[in-house]
Amino acid sequence: MKQSRRTFVQMTSLLAASLPLASMKLHADSPDSPSLAPLAAGKRRGLLFDESDLPRIRANTTDPRFADLWKTKLAADISADTEFLQHGLRLTNHVMHLQRVQQILERASFIYFVNRDPAQLVLAKLAIRRMLDFPEWDSFVEGGRQVVGLQRATEGSVLLLLAIDYLGDGVSTAEREEIEQAVITKGVPACHAAVYGMKYPDRVRGWDWNPRSEVDEFRHINLKRWPLILNATNLKIIPTGSLGIVACYFRGRLPQAEGWLELARSSARSFSTMYGSDGCYDEGVSYWGYTTMFLALFAEVLWRTQGIDDRQLINYPGSVRYALAMTMPTIDDHRKLADYQHIQGYTMPTVKPKHDIVNFGDANGAVDVCVAAWVARTHGDALSQYVAREIGEAKQLYGLLWYDPAAKEAPPEPALLDHRMANDLVVSRTGWGAQDSVLALRSGGPANHEHADRNSVIFKAYGERLLHDPFRAAYVATQRRWLLRLTEAHTAVLIDGKGHQYHDGHEGTNASWAFARVTGFRTGDGWMTVTSDATDAYQLVNDKVVRVHRTLVFLKPDIVIFLDRVALKGATATVQVRFQANNEDAAGQATAEAAGFTITRPHATLHGRTAGTGELQVRATRLALEEKDGVYPFAEVESAAASQHEILTVCSARPASDAHGKLEISREAGRWRVQGAHGGRSVQVTLATAGDAVPVISI
């Protein structure tokens, strides 16, 4: 039912009065700012495309790069979607049902935009009608009443406005006005409450779960501190970008849109500091994709509709390089992975091996091409075009809007093979293909969606993950797979069987207090060394700890030397160093021997040789999970109780049918020596240790 004009005016006036004023200018004032080319007479400029873009967008749907995405969209079952929208939908289910409505809306309206299929128009308009039937659009409230838009209200508002562009004359004037009114009354207040609350958390009465929303599985999570917690997460930029896009749409038509836009731009600018100066991002590469896409969407709409150029707000070309560094394709044996659920009805997604990633934290999705396509177009960055063309997966329809096959393309420069990021993640590799090697070290500070994984390592060689970081950890602390978030489930160090500090999950998947820092990083022809200090993280659990250092020596392509140094003051402890095998597809195992271990995968093996300053014991076992929750084997090297520990582990990788070389470990006068031969190369490495200093390494 439509509101009266009087009610609408009263509501929007109230909104306008509630918005803080800001002093930032809302026009492009740089003398060097480019200007948008004028449109031909009678042509319309949309939020993300002009009518002249349609031939290019249609051509993209036939490009092999987007073939799988487009095929999947076209294959969707219209009758099943219609049945769900008409009879299966619950208007209190925002987590799953409203999300599905929005997915149907986006897909159907975009297909109609490209193909002008009348059946898709009918489906899209039904999805719009059903979305408008929802009394409210999200699962969170402020002060017990005002809906807070963090996901559904935010994405939904943008999708409704884009649908107006996609459907064009398929939407009548009356229908368009009804959509706009719904966005203003249900979307804007929710988005504004989220953005305003994160900017001014001291003015928030209290966020909580919407009592009218089906979120019982999450109600135990305490949201009181979420205005502070989410201020440094992806769930800040989604409502920020959405509020800004809506403001651009209504600017010049509603006076309060000016305030919406000022608040959104202010929020985007404050959030931009979440990216490193080099473009790196803390929450993991799959969250990078979601976050950066919304930042780019806002910047694109702002430029196209207002002539305001915020497309340099972060180092976008550098951010694409971050995403590139986090890619790690592996061999696909087409084995079925077990399904696990976060909540009833929601199966955790899996990453296709050819799109595998360095999955620190909860990262669980392939790098999407759409951001790279946008950066290639807007920044003229040839490497971004290469990423858009060759790396990752086309998952979002925005890639079809933004990809330009005529953009200049260039492959990664050799300097990117060894990448220490501003946030102290380190990734070293031999190349970008499935058969290339990748070594990744998780140093750095806390982040939303993190795990207790400081100084943990992922290693891929010969097409296989040989040192693993588990996927699909539970988001809910009461589920057994929460264990996969803890240090015990990582290729990392335990002290007396305990990992470093982590939270109990009562506020969600937020950041811990655990820090690690890279203290040494060097590269050379065919090698990389790095040292990371995680002492602070372990001291939060055991105040007797005075040193937890990990040094890696990577002799490319297939030798990794670990030196783990642990010290305690006034106490002794055992130290365990774990090496996790990849058994996500039930095809990995770990075995132990007297002074070493072997991790076996179908296409490659990893052999570890161990030595230490104290007595060592090597075992192979698995995480303490029931089989229904997954089987996670690992090898563990334990150093007997002492106050000082040095544990050296020399790992080599080979294709499954090849033998490992002979590498010997010795120690004399505070100096470790690794020598021998492996894979047709001679090895001579020394590591000299002294106190807390970074080991002196000779190769």
Quick synopsis:
This protein is α+β, with helices and mostly antiparallel strands.
Can you describe what's shown?
The strands form six sheets. The protein has an eight-stranded antiparallel sheet. A five-stranded antiparallel sheet has the order 6-7-8-9-10, with no helix packed on it. It has a four-stranded antiparallel sheet with strand order 11-16-21-20, with no helix packed on it. Helix 5 packs antiparallel against helix 6 and helix 10 (234-250) packs parallel to helix 12. Among the domains are: 54-257, no CATH class; 415-698, Beta-galactosidase, Chain A, domain 5. A hairpin with a 2-residue loop joins strand 17 (589-593) and strand 18 (596-601). The protein is 31% helix and 23% strand. It starts with a helix and ends with a strand. The chain is an alpha+beta fold and 699 residues long.
Topology:
Elements: H1 5-18, H2 54-62, H3 67-74, H4 78-88, H5 94-115, H6 118-133, E1 140-142, E2 146-148, H7 152-167, H8 173-199, E3 207-209, H9 226-229, H10 234-250, H11 257-271, H12 285-306, H13 316-325, E4 341-343, E5 346-347, H14 370-379, H15 382-390, H16 398-402, E6 418-420, E7 425-429, E8 438-442, E9 456-461, E10 464-467, E11 493-495, E12 517-524, E13 527-533, H17 535-539, E14 545-555, E15 559-568, E16 573-580, E17 589-593, E18 596-601, E19 604-612, E20 616-622, E21 633-642, E22 644-655, E23 662-668, E24 671-678, E25 681-688, E26 696-698
